[in-house]
Specification:
This protein folds into two domains: 5-207, no CATH class; 290-358, Zinc/RING finger domain, C3HC4 (zinc finger) (Herpes Virus-1). Helices cover 57% and strands 6% of the residues. The protein has 14 helices and six strands. The chain has helices at 5-8, 12-39, 44-48, 50-69, 73-77, 96-129, 137-169, 177-181, 191-198, 217-224, 232-249, 251-268, 271-277, 327-336; strands at residues 80-85, 91-92, 184-188, 316-318, 324-326, 353-354. The chain has a three-stranded antiparallel β-sheet with strand order 2-1-3. A three-stranded antiparallel β-sheet has the order 5-4-6. It is elongated.
Length: 358
């Protein structure tokens, strides 16, 4: 059953999220490598080669998913797949050549762009710090590269934005110029695709169809002890290959678990949680009340009255000494004397605080 084009065509947000998923994992891997290198010094070389490690993992992961699901890891994460577009605008499954081109564009092109960006930043800083010109061809190349690279990057990004706009407007079914170059389209997985993958019958090229009841030659050789037919190296390679395929198949769940673990660690080591786990300090005792100066004004027995005007307080105001007055009374007193009327301690108008009494 053919799926209508409107149903098979993913939205802009689906394809954009799939493209950004891989790059979003790059800082996380770099952080993990840096943290491990701090505790295990021999791993410092991996932290220095973070880009190579990351894109090599992407290459192997995308290569596996293209073989088994006809989609990259990020595309399969969002239930998408790739199809080949024939000259008559019909669709066909990907072959080995299509998968090779796809994995090169998925992992090779971003790696080259990241290295060019790093080389541009480093060379630009060096030329600004040491603007000498020794006349060598290497200096000429560096200066030319620094001048031309921003324009080349602008043209490439402009093509990507143009394709994205055309994709949103529905004038093209190719989200990026690379998929157009490869004659490939990204579509949603159909129900038939999902059922086939659940049954374990995904796209597995070059698979040999076994007869019903036939035994695996490697398994038979292993059981019969005929090591001469199947070498130990082949067995080890088969076991490692099976383990690698199992890890790749479960990489989607590893992403879910990794996001949860990273969020949990961020919360665990956050300053708020650290303060919550600390033993709270005992509340210090309040300072002793201020002592009335012998020449200070008397304190009325009725605490609701102002010590200056001896009437009920209006617009109460507090001094650092702890005594409360009418705002107008104490303001004028501070303006004239600059001291607390009761303790005669120095006090400025800026230290006066209005309070609200119920």
């Amino acid at each position: 059953m053919n799926t209508p084009p409107s149903m098979s065509r993913p939205s802009f947000f689906e394809v954009s999220a799939a493209e950004r998923l891989t790059e979003g994992l790059r800082p996380a891997l770099q952080h993990i490598l840096t943290t491990l290198s701090n505790h295990v010094p021999p791993l410092a070389m991996l932290a220095q080669r973070g880009d190579e490690v990351f894109y090599l993992m992407c290459f192997l992961l995308d290569r596996h998913y293209l073989k088994t699901h006809n989609a990259s890891f990020a595309e399969n994460f969002y239930c998408l797949k790739r199809v080949k577009v024939l000259p008559d605008d019909t669709k066909a499954p990907l072959d080995d050549r299509d998968r090779l081109g796809a994995v090169v564009c998925l992992s090779g092109v971003p790696y080259v762009r990241s290295k060019l960006e790093a080389y541009y930043n480093e060379t630009n800083l060096n030329l600004q710090a040491f603007p000498h010109n020794d006349g060598s061809w290497m200096t000429f190349f560096r200066k030319s590269f620094v001048k031309l690279y921003p324009y080349a990057a602008l043209v490439y990004e402009g093509l990507e934005y143009m394709h994205a706009i055309q994709y949103v407007m529905g004038t093209t079914r190719h989200f990026s110029p690379l998929t157009l170059l490869l004659n490939q389209r990204v579509e949603r997985l159909t129900m038939a695709d999902m059922l086939r993958h659940q049954r374990g019958g995904g796209h597995k090229p070059n698979a040999v169809t076994a007869r019903p009841g036939a035994r695996n030659p490697m398994e038979s050789a292993w059981q019969q002890g005929t090591v001469t037919r199947v070498s130990i190296a082949a067995k080890v390679f088969a076991i490692l290959s099976r383990i690698g395929n199992l890890m790749a198949d479960n990489a989607k769940w590893a992403v879910y678990l990794g996001v949860f673990v990273i969020r949990f660690l961020q919360w665990w080591y956050s300053p708020e949680n650290q303060q919550r786990n600390e033993v709270p300090l005992a509340t210090p005792p309040p300072p002793p009340p201020a002592v009335k100066h012998p020449r200070g004004v008397a304190i009325p027995e009725d605490k609701s009255k102002c010590p200056l005007c001896l009437r009920t307080r209006v617009n109460a105001a507090l001094l650092p000494s702890g005594f409360v007055f009418c705002y107008t009374c104490v303001f004028n007193h501070l303006k004239d004397h600059g001291t607390c009327p009761v303790t005669l301690r120095p006090c400025r108008i800026g230290e006066l605080r209005k309070i609200y009494e119920s």
